[in-house]
């Protein structure tokens, strides 16, 4: 019997209305996250990763953001159709978010222990005394002495603040954590500590996770599967081992080639030529065709379908879609 997926995103499209025109942030996205599974979400700034996360949480800006198609099924419930009351119950209790910047994620006027207590009391029927004891335990779990529960955020370093944010996110033992580049604002010397902490706690609690990141090293260390996103589209998806052993889409190959290698003496890194499209720009054909070193005639006027390379490994690229028959270069 096939294991039930915790999260299923089907044909999701999201747009923003701006003064410069319509931004097509996410286009016909399909993704799955299984029980206790970690999905890495990789791509350049503006690829649509954070928009996808905000849509799952129901936090799109109401006046400018709009879901134009699709479903987001969490434990079988469509998050796009549930009431605000039901969504508030799910957020924090079953789905939690770890944001990029711990400096702005905490209330500067509240003691950190009280901020954890607030989350616990919101979702659990326990007294404030019990909640405070649990808050102290959570702080200990993320490596902060319980005596510091009475301190304010400004009394903590950036890394310690992010540990508090993680404690809040894990307070109700959620089934899914969305971590949006959780180490971006931290000193490089403590990024690894925070990511190892997230990994260990996720495994200990049996939680699923979506990890939004630019760092392919973190993906290799923590994730089970990875989705490569470009200009609102997932261009390649695979179990981590397969995508590292056999990157297939030209954009994915470009990302890997741009990583410094310790076993070579190359003076220059390979680069992906050109720039990502403007947010309001609509590209005919494959979204990557203006920058692709393998661009063919067909790529400029037709969008590639999903092509499975091996098991769960798929890509959107005409290099794999057709291997025989018509000559695509001459279309």
Summarize the helices and strands and which ones pair or pack.
Layout: E1 5-18, E2 21-34, E3 38-42, H1 49-57, E4 65-74, E5 77-78, H2 84-93, E6 95-98, H3 102-105, H4 112-123, H5 128-141, H6 158-170, E7 176-180, H7 188-205, E8 208-213, H8 216-222, E9 225-230, E10 233-239, H9 240-245, H10 250-257, E11 306-310, E12 313-316, H11 318-321
Parallel strand pairs: 3-8, 3-9, 6-7, 7-8
Antiparallel strand pairs: 1-2, 1-4, 4-5, 9-10, 10-12, 11-12
Total strand count, please?
12
Give the termini separation.
Answer: 44 Å
Taken as a percent bin, the fraction of beta residues is: 15-25%
Biggest sheet details:
8 strands, mixed
> What fraction, in percent, of the residue positions are helical?
25-40%
Uncertain runs:
323-327
What is the alpha-carbon Rg in Å? 21 Å
The secondary-structure element order is: EEEHEEHEHHHHEHEHEEHHEEH
Identify the overall geometry.
globular
Summed over residues and divided by their number, the pLDDT gives a mean of: 89
Number of DSSP helical runs: 11
Structural class: alpha/beta
Strands of the biggest beta sheet: in what spatial order?
A: 6-7-8-3-9-10-12-11
């Amino acid at each position: 019997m096939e294991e039930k997926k915790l999260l299923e995103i089907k044909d999701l499209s999201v747009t923003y209305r701006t003064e410069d025109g319509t931004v097509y942030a996410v286009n016909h996205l399909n993704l799955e996250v299984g029980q206790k599974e970690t999905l890495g979400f990789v791509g350049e700034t503006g690829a649509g990763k954070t928009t996808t996360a905000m849509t799952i949480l129901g936090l799109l800006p109401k006046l400018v953001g709009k879901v134009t198609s699709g479903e987001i099924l969490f434990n079988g419930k469509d998050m796009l159709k549930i009431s605000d009351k039901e969504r508030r119950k799910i957020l924090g209790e079953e789905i939690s978010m770890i944001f990029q910047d711990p400096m702005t994620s905490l209330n500067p006027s509240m003691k950190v222990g009280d901020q954890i207590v607030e989350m616990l009391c919101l979702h659990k029927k326990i007294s404030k005394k019990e909640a405070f004891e649990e808050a102290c335990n959570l702080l200990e779990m993320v490596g902060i002495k319980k005596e510091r529960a009475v301190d304010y955020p400004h009394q903590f370093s950036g890394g310690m603040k992010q540990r508090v944010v993680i404690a809040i996110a894990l307070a109700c033992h959620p089934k899914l954590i969305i971590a949006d580049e959780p180490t971006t604002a931290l000193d490089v010397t403590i990024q690894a500590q925070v990511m190892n902490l997230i990994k260990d706690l996720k495994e200990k609690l049996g939680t699923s996770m979506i990890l939004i990141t630019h760092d392919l090293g973190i993906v290799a260390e923590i994730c089970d599967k990875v989705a490569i996103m470009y200009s609102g589209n997932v261009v390649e998806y695979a179990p981590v081992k397969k995508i590292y052993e056999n990157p297939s889409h030209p954009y994915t190959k470009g990302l890997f080639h741009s990583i410094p290698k310790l076993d070579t003496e190359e003076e220059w890194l390979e680069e992906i030529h050109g720039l990502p499209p403007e947010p309001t720009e609509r590209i005919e054909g494959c979204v990557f065709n203006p920058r692709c070193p393998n661009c063919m005639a067909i790529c400029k006027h037709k969008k590639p379908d999903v092509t499975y390379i091996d098991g769960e490994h798929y890509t959107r690229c005409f290099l794999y879609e057709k291997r025989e028959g018509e000559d695509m270069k001459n279309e």
